[in-house]
Amino acid sequence: MIHLSFRKSKTKPNGKKPPAEEKKQYLEPEFTKIRVVDFDLKELVVLPREIDLNEWLASNTTTFFNLINLQYSTISEFCTGDTCQAMTACNTIYYWYDERGKKTKCTAPQYVDFVMSLCQKLVTDEEIFPTKYGKEFPNSFESLVKKICRYLFHVLAHLYWAHFKETVAMDLQGHLNTLYAHFIVFVREFNLVDPKETCIMDDLSEVLCTPAPPPAPTPAPSAPASAPSPSSQNHVTER
Ligand SMILES: [Zn+2]
């Protein structure tokens, strides 16, 4: 198994303001229709016959870690202590909890750095993600996979919330959408992230994770506006 590590480049703060006023550009049909693949992603995530569940989780989790790290690296020069003073996504601020469980407020680039360093440490630990034949997965394996997936979701959510414009400027929104949809379908299949975590992005998940309809001349009937969940409305949630 190849473990790649993409470290973000250290760049000077450019004093750019977060695009907070431009709400959810990522939901505009112009962008959600752009995907790299148009088949049902579920086919990609179901456990293949003859494959051990833990092997499958380990391989996919490692791949998602590398891809999300790479996707973040494309905009990392725009994610600075100035532009992103906190790790935000929708109305949520994520706080980092250190190894002793102490809550710390940190900037988004610091948070992402903590996430990527932790993930790198875990997926390359032979005791946790064994790659040698016959080596057993530890009892804590599933909970560690859940932890990694939860943190990777935070990074994806931040990419959409704070850096979608820059992603579009580099014409990488199709890659981001495909990566996001694949990730969400995967974590749903194996219940790896609490829906209470992912609900802040449910509107996007609904659009991206349903197979793209065949092109039809008749417009789809307008879906009833889904009521925003109380936790995502009008106040900042702390996690
Ligand atoms: Zn940022």
UniProtKB/TrEMBL annotation:
**Where do Low complexity bias regions lie?**
223-232
Region named Disordered: 1-22, 211-239
Q: Which domain of life is it from?
A: Eukaryota
One Pfam family named in its UniProt record: Mob1_phocein
Q: Where is the composition biased (Pro residues)?
A: 211-222
Q: Which residues bind Zn(2+)?
A: C79, C84, H158, H163
Its keywords, alphabetically, are: Metal-binding, Zinc
The entry's protein name is MOB kinase activator 2a
Q: Which organism is it from?
A: Gouania willdenowi
